[in-house]
Amino acid sequence: MTTVTPPLLPPAEDALGGRPAAPPDPAAAERQELIERWAARHGIDAARRLAEAEDLADAVAAEITPDNTVDTYTKSWRVRTRFCTAAGLPAREGSRGRWWRS
């Protein structure tokens, strides 16, 4: 028996006949909001320099962080979220037992 797969359809068009924009990336939207706050507080030039400094820091961190570290953190987070789900606890909530201070 042969299965027939329908052809892929293009995305639906919006009311103006164009393709809808991709949904905004939450991280990109958050970063843009941060840059806008910096610009309001310190001026556009300072906001640009701060954003460039953050980009450099992210690049350095990515370069010096071993792959197995990221892998271990990812696995640990999955274990934590499974535990919290099973225990009925929020995964992102801190408590008195946490090792850091806010």
Report on this structure.
The chain is mainly alpha-helical and 102 residues long. Helices cover 58% and strands 0% of the residues. The chain is built from 3 helices and no strands. It has helices spanning 26-42, 44-64, 67-87.
Summarize the structure.
By secondary structure, this protein is mainly α. It has helices at residues 26-42, 44-64, 67-87.
Sum up the overall morphology in one term.
Answer: extended
Query: Which structural class fits the helix and strand makeup?
Result: mainly alpha
Largest sheet: none
Mean pLDDT: 79
Q: Mind telling me the C-alpha Rg?
A: 22 Å
> Residue ranges: pLDDT <50 for 5 or more in a row?
5-9
Portion in helices: 55-70%
**Helical segment tally?**
3
Instruction: Work out the strand percent.
Output: under 5%
Strand tally = 0
Distance between the termini: 62 Å
Helix-strand pattern, N to C?
HHH
Helices and strands, with pairings:
Layout: H1 26-42, H2 44-64, H3 67-87
Helix pairs in contact: 1-2
Notable characteristics:
102 residues, 3 helices
